[in-house]
Design brief:
Helices cover 37% and strands 19% of the residues. The chain is of the alpha/beta class. Bound molecules: uridine-5'-diphosphate. Homohexamer.
Length: 241
């Protein structure tokens, strides 16, 4: 397995049930099984989960809330999701730790970079909760930041579509999927892969990214086994190894 350490980013919306429930237990179980598969192959796995299924700061701000408070609500939403994913992983026998960017000692360990790396090396899946801990950021940026901090070999962004398209495949039946892109192309073409801060952080720290469908069973393992899935974003031939 070429990738020794990965960071998996999942949006909060991915956890939602079909009737709008904030968490969907069958999906959580399926997700945990996917993670367990790659963890079982010896890959060190970090996870960042969004909070959009519960609360987004921009929504709170649109209601007239102070943006910083609204974003704190969003970050707390990611903690709820992190505990949900932790329960699912532990339910299938995977040891985990939740590390929170906002200290909350009865619930999670505080995020400390060295502790995160130690947990990964000791075989625990590390779930990074509460985003970056700062308002005005997203969990995509938190994922890029944590990927850099743990020296991840690959950042994997799980979505409900199987990669990056030149236009919205739900609206345009002729939309074309890219199999690979460079970070500069993503920026030049204005592709909405992740927000600009997140993309720039990955590019500047030379972290390759793969956007893939979490709904495709076995996709995570396939990618880590070197099979071409989703869209890979890199540097035009020079990748970290
Ligand atoms: N958030 C934040 N700082 C961070 C990460 C997240 O303030 O570093 C807040 C922000 O309000 C955001 C919410 O948490 O709207 C949920 O995160 P995000 O929108 O990235 O979740 P996703 O879309 O991935 O579910």
């Amino acid at each position: 397995m070429a990738k020794r350490r990965i960071l998996l980013k999942l949006s909060g919306e991915a956890l939602m049930g079909s009737q709008g429930e904030s968490l969907d237990p069958p999906f959580l179980r399926a997700l945990a099984a996917e993670i367990r598969e790659v963890w079982g192959l010896g890959v060190q796995v970090g996870v960042v989960i969004g909070g959009g299924n519960i609360f987004r700061g921009a929504y709170g701000a649109s209601l007239g809330m102070e943006r910083s408070s609204a974003d704190q609500m969003g970050m707390l939403a990611t903690v709820i999701n992190s505990l949900g994913v932790q329960a699912a992983l532990e339910g299938c026998g995977v040891p985990t730790r939740v590390l929170s960017a906002i200290p909350m000692s009865p619930i999670a360990e505080p995020f400390v970079q060295r502790d995160a790396v130690r947990h990964l090396e000791e075989g625990r899946v590390v779930i990074f909760a509460a985003g970056t801990g700062n308002p005005y950021f997203t969990t995509d940026t938190a994922a890029s930041l944590r990927a850099a901090e743990i020296h991840a070999d690959l950042l994997l962004k799980a979505t409900k579509v199987d990669g990056v398209y030149d236009s919205d495949p739900k609206k345009n039946p002729d939309a074309k999927r890219f199999t690979s892109l460079t970070y500069d192309e993503v920026l030049r073409l204005g592709l909405g892969v992740m927000d600009l801060t997140a993309i720039t952080l990955c590019r500047d720290n030379r972290i390759p990214l793969c956007v893939f469908s979490i709904l495709e069973r076995g996709c995570l393992t396939a990618i880590l086994s070197g099979e071409p899935r989703g869209t890979t974003i890199g540097f035009g031939g020079v990748e970290r190894s």
